[in-house]
Specification:
2 copies of one chain form a homodimer. Chain A has a single domain (2-79), classed as Mth169, Chain: A (2-Layer Sandwich), CATH 3.30.1280.10. Chain A contains 2 helices and 3 strands. Chain A has helices at residues 16-27, 51-66, and strands at 2-9, 34-45, 72-79. Chain A has a 3-stranded antiparallel sheet with strand order 2-1-3. The A-B interface holds A 6-8, 18, 21-22, 24-25, 28, 30-48, 57, 60-61, 64-66 and B 6-8, 18, 21-22, 24-25, 28, 30-48, 57, 60-61, 64-66. Strand 2 (34-45) of chain A pairs antiparallel with strand 2 (34-45) of chain B, so a sheet runs across the interface.
């Protein structure tokens, strides 16, 4: 089973990477681009047998390692 | 209009960040996790009037700045 995890900065948390992308896009002539935020995308394969177990396991992974829940939100979906 | 862009490493390209996450998950006791890949997730707001224009603009952004198409794939969706 494959998990697709999205980790994004919470609203209000400064995002210097996003700001750098926004400035670079502006410098390249892309007008009207705003509110650029950069997050992480993590894909992994799980050996978990059923979806409930997989969901609980990915939840624990996010809480304990993948996301910094003070400043980041996470969401995920299971495929296959 | 909001664009959600996913940038992932192509198959076969070494992913040391993914490997580090895989090792860390193993060290934390998560068994059966394999094939961990880390990508980027970029959200941005566009001023483009219609979806066709927005799609073309995001495509050009990915090609010229956001993705390194030698080693990365990108995909995106438009919302709102």
């Amino acid at each position: 089973m494959k998990a697709l995890i999205r980790i994004t900065l919470k609203n209000g948390v400064l995002d210097p990477q996003g700001k750098a992308i926004e400035n670079a896009l502006g410098a390249l002539g892309f007008a009207g681009v705003s509110d650029v935020r950069q997050g992480k995308l993590i894909e992994l394969d799980l050996a978990a047998a059923d979806e409930t177990a997989a969901r609980a396991e990915v939840e624990r992974m996010c809480q304990s390692l993948l996301a910094n829940t003070v400043i980041e939100n996470y969401s995920f979906e299971l495929v296959g």
